[in-house]
Specification:
The chain contains 14 helices and 18 strands. By secondary structure, the protein is an alpha+beta fold. An eight-stranded mixed beta sheet has the order 8-12-13-18-17-16-15-14, sandwiched between helices. A five-stranded mixed beta barrel has the order 3-4-5-7-6. Strands 9-11-10 form a three-stranded antiparallel beta sheet, with no helix packed on it. A hairpin with a 2-residue loop joins strand 1 and strand 2. The longest helix is centred in the first third of the chain and has 23 residues. The structure holds one RNA strand of 77 nucleotides.
RNA sequence: UCCUUCUUAGCUCAGUUGGUUAGAGCACAUGACUGUUAAUCAUGGGGUCCUUGGUUCAAGCCCAAGAGAGGGAGCCA
């Protein structure tokens, strides 16, 4: 204990976080806990209050003996109320915990009317919790997810820092949609009604704040490449926006993306990094969030019991995570993958909804087959046909494929998409023209290939998809504090 | 955006071929209980059956439109 003092017979209490307290051996220490009431159990002579302050999944038990607290005060201690408890940390007489607080006094910070407070000590559906996004961080499940999310974010910075990468802050507002990665959110200060028009009746963006059309970024990659071609190894980690009308368990309109970009890395180096990086992140979570993962694992097991036998997962959450950290990812080319699909029973029996042939973009069902049925481990697919991949990917000598790579995980599909970048000016210019990108809009990008061009590679990791995998949750809206999806931006 | 399922108490749900006063569990309130573990036991309160319109003697139930949500697909991370 850091501060315990007796002043004229009064105990001075020192506030500690519950995570810290639960690691102590009790020794009649004066202590203060502040947090939110999870449950209160009354009996004639004693009341038990379970308090959580979010520092850990575990609660601390405060024990109120009859007469030590005015009954009117104890009545205000209801599920959801915020209180401070002052008392002595003592060994617990009960079974469920090693230490508990013998309460001397209680301060009420915030009431929670039990008739109105929506979070009751019972199971709630995830759909219902989404409707009360302002309160759901107070639940066990979401606090566990948010702590894991934090740990993974911290691990990302740790990994890159330890490997000589620099954190590059790429812009959120961009003036080009060079990647053509779908619909963008427009950024403007022009009035929505009667904006200034050009002579031919279109909105005159010369009058706008930036003097041109601007949008929220869909990727920091192009700017990331500029950084890599100066600092050798950089990464970006920030919010990304897609205005696509996607309503799935794997898409958000606002999500966080990790994008490393490395000079002098070829495709194989890129794959090695992607594999080592994801394994590190998962291992970090296993090492640092054991309590939270154990809680989510138990939650998942309870949920699995409700399902039919054939739909139940063979592995528990921690087994699934260790399976990734302990296995080598299967690497194969797109062409090899197509061959496997063509020879699969599923294809021969016509079980795929979409046809399989060289040149198609693989559908979810195809990816799932490869990852979950055929290899049963994470898969890295490389060398896709150039027609189905972005313009900036390095063309292979065969003239047909590009040095792309997608990392596919069980359950969530594509978690990483990356490539070696085209570093040949002429080839890149030709590709931009073929795809229909205006040269003037990305002159600065093209110029990097004219001045000191270098072989380089990079990839994008969807952060929420990683959190989805590590927490074992099934809907991406449940792994970000305040999800943004079509028609939803309440909190 | 397409396909599909759903919307009944604070929450999770049941509700028979359309028929009297719409039910359960949990939660909540009150009481009991000498240490509980989302305690237990007893009692009690709690409803715009998503909205609008229609069919019918009669609609939670049938029909139409709309709104919202879930799952799948596409797009992708």
């Amino acid at each position: 204990m850091r501060v315990i003092a007796h002043l004229k017979g009064l105990l001075i209490y020192y506030r500690m976080q519950i995570k810290e307290i639960l690691g102590l051996t009790a020794a009649q220490q004066a202590i203060t806990v502040k947090g939110w009431v999870r449950t209160k159990r009354n009996s004639a002579a004693v009341a038990f209050i379970a308090i959580n302050d979010g520092s850990t999944i575990n609660n601390i038990q405060a024990v109120v003996n009859e007469g030590s607290i005015p009954e009117e005060t104890l009545k205000l201690v209801t599920t959801g109320a915020c209180i401070a408890v002052h008392g002595l940390l003592i060994p617990s007489q009960g079974q469920g915990q090693s230490v508990e607080i013998q309460v001397n006094s209680i301060e009420i910070y915030g009431l929670a009317d039990p008739e109105k407070y929506p979070l009751q000590p019972k199971k709630h559906s995830l759909e219902f919790l989404r409707e009360i996004g302002h309160l759901r961080p107070r639940t066990n499940t979401f606090s566990a997810i948010l702590r894991i999310r934090h740990a993974l974010a911290f691990a990302i910075n740790t990994y890159f820092n330890d490997h000589g990468f620099f954190y590059l802050h790429t812009p959120i507002i961009t003036g080009s949609d060079a990647e053509g990665a779908g619909e963008m959110f427009r950024v403007t200060t022009l009035p929505a009604i009667n904006p200034p028009l050009t002579e031919d009746g279109k909105v005159d963006y010369k009058e706008d704040f930036f003097g041109k059309e601007t949008n929220l970024t869909v990727s920091g990659q192009l700017e990331g490449e500029l950084g890599a071609l100066a600092l050798s190894k950089i990464y970006t980690f920030g919010p990304t926006f897609r205005a696509e009308n996607s309503n799935t368990t794997r898409h958000l309109a606002e999500f966080w993306m990790v994008e490393p970009e490395m000079a002098f890395f070829e495709l194989t180096d890129n794959m090695n990094l992607a594999e080592d990086f994801t394994k590190f992140l998962i291992k970090y979570a296993l090492d640092h969030c054991a309590d939270d993962i154990a809680f989510l694992e138990k939650r998942l097991l309870d949920e699995e019991k409700m399902k039919k036998k054939e739909e139940q997962s063979e592995l528990t959450l921690s087994e699934k995570l260790k399976f990734v950290t302990e296995n080598t990812f299967k690497r194969l080319t797109y062409t090899e993958a197509i061959d496997i699909l063509l020879q699969s029973k599923a294809h021969k029996q016509g079980k795929f909804n979409y046809p399989v042939a060289w040149g198609i973009d693989l559908q979810s069902e195809h990816e799932r087959y490869l990852v979950e049925k055929h290899f049963k481990k994470p898969v890295i697919l490389t060398h896709y046909p150039k027609e189905i991949k972005a313009f900036y990917m390095k063309q292979e000598v065969d003239g047909k494929t590009v040095r792309a790579m997608d990392v596919l995980f069980p359950g969530i599909g594509e978690i990483i998409g990356g490539s070696q970048r085209e570093d040949d000016y002429e080839k890149l210019l030709q590709r931009t023209k073929e795809v229909g990108i205006e040269e003037e809009s990305i002159w600065w990008y093209l110029q990097t290939r004219q001045f000191g061009s270098a072989p380089h590679s990079g990839f994008g990791l969807g952060f929420e998809r990683l959190v989805l995998f590590v927490t074992g949750m099934s809907n991406i809206r449940d792994v970000i504090p305040f999800p943004r999806t079509p028609k939803t931006a309440e909190f």
